[in-house]
Amino acid sequence: MATATLGGGCFWCLEAVFQRFAGVNSVTSGYAGGDTPDPDYRSVCTGRTGHAEVVRIDYDPQTIDFDTLLSVFFTIHDPTTPNRQGADVGPQYRSIILYEDDDQRAIAEAHIQRLTAEGALRAPIVTELVPLTRFYAAEAEHQDYYRQNAPMPYCQMVIEPKLAKARAGFSDRLAD
Q: What is the pTM of this model?
């Protein structure tokens, strides 16, 4: 089993997408990348804790590897906008990869270099690449958000298009 920690806007969006992939055993919404101990949703939303909304993905690397998770990650969010994803604005919504070891760091660096060399994006990638020091799970109401709230307008207008991108680009890797 392996773990990846990624942030690219609202954690509800990332959680909903990564939960659908074969080889992903669990996805936990939470906070990382900051220096305030024991952050909660309210404090992170102020943008002053240093934390980003992230997901911790527990996955089987024999079924889905870290590089594939990064391909999904860079497909479903805009890594060229600092501190913003759509209408979500603030440092808590920044694009961030929190690596757990030198292998993850090297894979992430190579992935970003490849996307840059290919000219895959309209602007430079601003995704932060930093070591994971601590992950804090978000409150219970933020876990499994899409599955529990799919009919809600936010889910339909923001999360569903990301799910559609994942289905279009990775249909052969989805579990459902």
A: 0.96
Domain coverage including residue 22: 2-165
Which of the residues 10, 13, 45, 155 is marked catalytic?
A: 10
Q: Is 56 helix (H, G, I), strand (E, B) or coil?
A: strand
With respect to residue 82, please indicate whether it lies within any of the assigned structural domains.
yes
User: Which residue matches tokens 């993850």?
Assistant: 104
Could you tell me how many helices (H) and strands (E) the chain has, helices first?
7, 8
- Identify whether 155 is a catalytic site residue: no
Specify the number of domains making up the chain: 1
d(CA 98, CA 133): 8
State the pLDDT confidence band at 87, using cuts at 50, 70 and 90.
Answer: confident
What's the CATH number where 91 sits? Answer: 3.30.1060.10
Average pLDDT over residues 118-127: 94
52-56 average pLDDT score? 98
Average pLDDT rounded to a whole number, residues 145-153: 95
The answer to the question of residue 28 being in a domain is yes
